[in-house]
Amino acid sequence: MQTILVTGGAGFIGSNFVRYMLDTHKDIRIINLDKLTYSGRIENIEMHDTDDRHEFVQGDIANKELVEYVVKKYNVDTIVNFAAESHVDRSIHGGREFVRTNVEGVQVLLEVTRDMGLERFHQISTDEVYGDLEAGGFATEESLLVPSSVYSATKAAAEMLVMAFKRTHDTPVTTTRCTNNYGPYHFPEKVIPLFITNLMEDKKVPVYGDGGQVRDWLYVTDHCSAIDLVLQKGELGEIYSVSARNEPEITNLELTKTILKHLGKDESYIQEVEDRAGHDRRYAVEGSKIRELGWKPAVSFDEGIAKTVQWYKDNEAWWRPIKESKELGSFFSVNYKIKQNEEGKAEAVRA
Ligand SMILES: NC(=O)c1ccc[n+]([C@@H]2O[C@H](COP(=O)([O-])OP(=O)(O)OC[C@H]3O[C@@H](n4cnc5c(N)ncnc54)[C@H](O)[C@@H]3O)[C@@H](O)[C@H]2O)c1
């Protein structure tokens, strides 16, 4: 029986992956290690409490002693790493925790994989490592990494560590770089769930700049099936880009109009806000390498967005307490100004 340590498995994609793997494979055990930061929610996985194939451990991937203990105790053979600080807006206003989790944490997981002789370490990366792409151009696995934000810079740094461990120690690694995901359990600070829930609350939706940014939205279970396939058939040391290749490409403004339509609202609900600092204009990934392994997305954008809107309608009890939480409130706004406070220290305040 395969025993997978899923790190960050209480977050958006991680919890969907845990569910996908438990549903798809009978003979599997998932050990779910998550620090439960603001975006990690025990509610995302509590339905597996009665399944003895799933075990939850609260803890930090950067704590080597703990990771070693968990790997030994549960006889783990594979690590799939989702754990990360994942929100670009947060990385603009303070990036240290991004470096600790996204870089140091990955170093720890790689050391444990090497030292304890695990069969595989799989790193979940992002298409954001490619940075901005010109209209018409597509990134491939060979493209240069030109990250624009602290978030994507730390994800690129992690990938470099993964490749260095392969080259130096022949550590058994694979990596997937996926485009933007959406679907159930997506934390409502990210654009799609933020907009759906704002409209359900009869609030406006903040669109950055002219809304012309292009993202290639992939429904979350399609990302899960791609990872599952790479675990089974991916070649060690290889990187696989995972993309929906939506045609035509979807700008943020078009995405917004689609969501407005689903919620029965007109364009007066659009609130233009100043563009995010360093905002990438377009992400686009070619993605034929994973298609050659036999993967393709099963859920179209139209179908996926309808399912997602329905999920947020059916699950108000999940997102309302999160949006009402004071600690998170400021991050639902997108405009900040840096000001000096009374003690002379710089602080980010809502504009
Ligand atoms: N969301 C996307 O569109 C997207 C696209 C491509 C790749 N990714 C990558 O997928 C992964 C998951 O993204 P997500 O959107 O589900 O993020 P998320 O913020 O919803 O989940 C991250 C999870 O990691 C946990 N975590 C954070 N720091 C930790 C630590 N030090 N130790 C243990 N657990 C920790 C959090 O508690 C949370 O459960 C990330 O690595 C992200 O870079 C995301």
Provide an overview of this structure.
It is a single chain. With 351 residues, the chain is an alpha/beta fold. The protein has a domain of 226 residues: 3-Layer(aba) Sandwich (Rossmann fold), CATH 3.40.50. 39% of the residues lie in helices and 19% in strands. The strands form 5 sheets. It has a 7-stranded parallel sheet with strand order 3-2-1-4-5-6-11, sandwiched between helices. α5 links the parallel β5 and β6. About 3% of the residues have low confidence. The site of nicotinamide-adenine-dinucleotide (NAD) has 29 residues, from α1, α4 and β5.
Tag the structure with descriptive keywords.
single chain, 351 residues, alpha/beta, Rossmann fold, 7-stranded parallel sheet, two-stranded parallel sheet, 15 strands, globular, binds nicotinamide-adenine-dinucleotide
